[in-house]
Amino acid sequence: MQPTLLILAAGMASRYGSMKQIQGFGPNGETIMDYSIYDAMRAGFGKVVFIIRKDFADDFKALFEPKLKGRIATDYVYQDLHSYVNGFSVPADRSKPWGTAHAVLCAKEAVHEPFAVINADDFYGRDAFEKAYGFLTGPVSDKLYCIIGYELIKTLSENGTVSRGVCQVDAAGNLVSIAERTKIYQENGKITYEEGDAKFEVPSDSKVSMNFWCLSPAVFPYTEKIFSEFLAEQGKNPKAEFFIPIIGDKLIREGRGDIKVIPTAAQWFGVTYKEDAPDVQASLNALIAKGEYPAKLW
Q1: What band does 164 get if pLDDT is binned at 50, 70 and 90?
Q2: What is the CATH number of domain 4-289?
């Protein structure tokens, strides 16, 4: 069975200030997602499922269906504040989605095979998709998942702070813990993250999650259970987010399975801020010049 690619594209893009998921960066208006889908297809993935907001579904489909029709199966899932809350009363002042783990949960009815999860606005590189495909068609099981691990130094933005899931990895290559650090930046040759009013240094070669997860469908009922607990504890906080690393961390601590960290030396790039856009375009042009991608993808 060919694995599925699940793309998280429902974010509000609050820091970036526009719907960056459908902004063109390639020579013919290709989005970052186009390159991810292209890499996934040539690695062997059989379907792509987009998680989007219902209010921009028509524009989104109009952009992708003409390109992908006949090339790969597609499906669309909507992340809604009221999905899978199981009777919880959503606060009136809550406007932003519940977070990436909730987005994955919203795909429960659309994904029935091993699958990879990625962000819409991150460029991961061909190597990452080939390693993900190898895992999803090989050792993946209901008790063995993986993340593609990037070197922290290769995932920063020069234009502001970034959020990263910083991994602790044991000698066997298994994830020990993952902690979401929401304000990471480089300063005076060191990489720092902030928590409250405190600053902490983190090694530049730390493995970080860029939200490239390889999972089995067994993750859905488990995520639904943890989401109910999250809502009971933090649901009234309008800024609380249910991140995928929360699921990974609990899975490990409860002894429900292992998560391999499969390293890639690929250079990540993405558009956290508008100022990142020229760098993304230059990086894509360099890859095209090297022959990694055709000038026109579709």
Answers
A1: confident
A2: 3.90.550.10
Token digits of residue 243: 């991140």
Beta 207-215 vs 4-8: how paired, if at all?
unpaired
Residue 277's φ and ψ, nearest 5 degrees, are -55, -45
The predicted pLDDT at position 182 comes to 80
Q: What is the mean pLDDT of the chain?
A: 91
Neighbours of 272 (CB within 10 A): 20
Each residue's pLDDT tens digit, 13-43:
444 444 545 678 899 989 999 999 999 999 9
Long-range contacts formed by 178-186: CB under 8 A, 24+ apart: 178/147, 178/209, 178/245, 178/248, 178/249, 179/245, 179/249, 180/243, 180/245, 180/246, 184/152, 184/156, 185/156, 185/160, 185/161, 186/156
**Whole-model pTM over 0.85:** yes
83 CB-contact burial (10 Å; exposed 0-12 / middle 13-18 / buried 19+): middle
Using alpha carbons, list the distances in angstroms from residue 150 to 127, 139, 182.
Answer: 11, 21, 17
Domain ranges of the chain: 4-289
